[in-house]
Amino acid sequence: MVLKKLKLKNFRGYRDFEVSFDDAINVIIGRNDIGKSTLLEALEIFFNSEKVKMDISDLCVFSEDATLIEISCCFDVGDGTVLIDSTCTTNCRDEYLLNEEGLLEIKKTWNYTNGSITKTGQKDYLVANYPVNYDPPLVTEKIQTLRRKYDELSTNSDCPQVNRSIASELRRAIYTVELNQSSEYRLTDIEMTKEDAKNIRDSLHKQFPSYYIFESDRKNTDKDNEIQDPLKAVTKTVLSEMANEIERMQQQVKERVEEIGRRTIAKLAELNEDIAEDIRPVVTVKPLDSAFNFELQSDNGIPLNKRGSGVRRLILLSYFRAEAERSIVTDPNTRLIYAIEEPETSQHPDFQRMIFDTLNNISQMPTHQIIVTSHTPEIAKLVTPEQLILLRRDENQRVGAVTDIQEKIRGVSKELGILPYASTKTVIFVEGSNDVNFLINLNQNIPELKSIIDLKEEEIPVIPLRGGTLVEWINRDYFTGTNLRQIYIVDNDVQTYKDRINQINSKNDGIRYGWVTRRSEMENYIPREMIETEFNVSLEQYEEGWYERDVPQLLKDLCMLNVDDPGKREMAIKQRMNGSITKKLCKADLERIDAWEEIEIWFKKIRSIVDGTYVQSVSVQ
């Protein structure tokens, strides 16, 4: 279940607001007091309502007559299947429980009539593109009603046979008989407090991503929240992994305590039936996370909350890294959302870059989603324009998220002071961001290549032609029409790329240079044995023609199967191959697969182009 959208109505500075989230990392940019932190706190209220709680002061000040606050989250639920209880499932798509965009939309509302919220003032709704035939929606009907309706339809030869004790099967059978292509639908708020809808609501809540918010403000208490929050999150995460065991244990305790209570009442009845008649055993199960306290103590006895704020933030970063690595091993399906307010706070510039690189790496894990607010250009430079959320306030004081990519790029670069960058006379273009990682990792981690030319030392930009980070978008536009030497390195798997390189080289203009890799893709330059180790798979049976195969395409059916979407799975595999594996490559590895000579020639060509001594070839092999 992946968070895709947040919608707000009448919440603080937002009258009517909607923002989309990237599956990996999201960076919220905007002026002070525009409402960046409000978005993180709205999500906290939706998911947990522990650190931040809703009250009447949260009503939007720009809507004088408003009494209703709405917070909605939209999720990608893959194939739509959700677990109702330990044995029964339902399919949101088949039961028409998704909105017009095919997303699962859950809306929570708070009604502050007469200045205070009533007992029934907080409600949950499922917002669905639902058939107009059913009012009320079938999901809110009692099972007895569903059985009667099913029995009326069962004389129809097209009516499927179902288990009459399972409400979801009854509903699907009714839909199958009564709905067709001409059926009408409308966006409907289905209140999730009645009959089976309540079961689905409770089940969905259990399947929500775990959401953790970390604020930048220092709390001057003995137990500094800035440290305690992630440490409490450790306890919360461990308990969530043991949820089924704990639930069984709690049920056993509850049953045994109730039984003791009933025996006690029975004995009381022997003494006084009138008193015993009004007494019944009630067992309340409280959250277990409050029963545990997790602390980190230093050997010299200095409490962490007395350490510098920068140190405390680094501990927070270390928690992220440890938790991210652990979660892959223990439960690859656990979905986590980390929301961090200004992670650069109190950090030296060197640590800022380290923090942002780490957050970016964590976000590339298919089960982790990062949302941060920031004022620094460094983090904006690391992400793509699609992963940036730029907030602006219009002349009517409405805050909105800029959706146009070019307008967003200009706005963020102006807001943060990001300027086009070209300190050298040469720029390298590759196909995508994974190819950027491949080329830079080889250059920086193999001394023999680094000695030919150090791309970072000479500040030569490597820019992807598809996608790319914000700064790469800015530079790409800036380099057009200049006298910068442009090097194009493209894969060998697409004929149009070869044709384009031939066109560039045939002009022989002294500005543009290009060549095509001899192997199909960059991934074909990674030894098979290293891939087997990284993904814990056996690939020996695919050895023939290995270095011309579409390796990520092959691997997506063999590993990382916890990522439901095949496209996202393939992308995650490419990221790991061009990221962590290429950092381990050495000259001997490339020599073993007969790839060293070609790659060495690449960097020698780059060196001679930078020096202005390269003699250009006109054709592509």
Description of the molecule:
The structure is a single chain. This protein has 621 residues and is α/β, with parallel strands linked by helices. Helix content is 39%, strand content 17%. A 6-stranded antiparallel sheet has the order 2-1-4-7-8-9, with helices on one face. A 6-stranded mixed sheet has the order 10-11-12-3-13-14, sandwiched between helices. The chain has a 4-stranded parallel sheet with strand order 16-15-17-18, sandwiched between helices. The two termini are 47 Å apart. 32% of the residues are buried. About 1% of the residues have low confidence.
Put the structure in a nutshell.
The chain is α/β, with parallel strands linked by helices. The protein has 20 helices and 18 strands.
Characteristic terms for this protein:
621 residues; alpha/beta; 17% strand; globular
Chain-wise SSE layout:
Elements: E1 2-11, E2 14-20, E3 25-29, H1 36-47, E4 68-76, E5 81-83, E6 89-91, E7 104-111, E8 122-131, H2 143-153, H3 167-178, E9 185-191, H4 195-207, E10 210-214, H5 225-241, H6 243-271, H7 273-277, H8 309-330, E11 336-341, H9 349-363, E12 368-373, H10 377-381, E13 388-393, E14 399-401, H11 405-416, E15 426-430, H12 433-445, H13 447-450, E16 462-464, H14 470-479, E17 485-490, H15 495-507, E18 512-516, H16 528-535, H17 551-555, H18 566-581, H19 587-592, H20 596-611
Parallel strand pairs: 3-12, 3-13, 10-11, 11-12, 15-16, 15-17, 17-18
Antiparallel strand pairs: 1-2, 1-4, 4-7, 5-6, 7-8, 8-9, 13-14
Helix pairs in contact: 2-3, 5-8, 8-9, 12-18
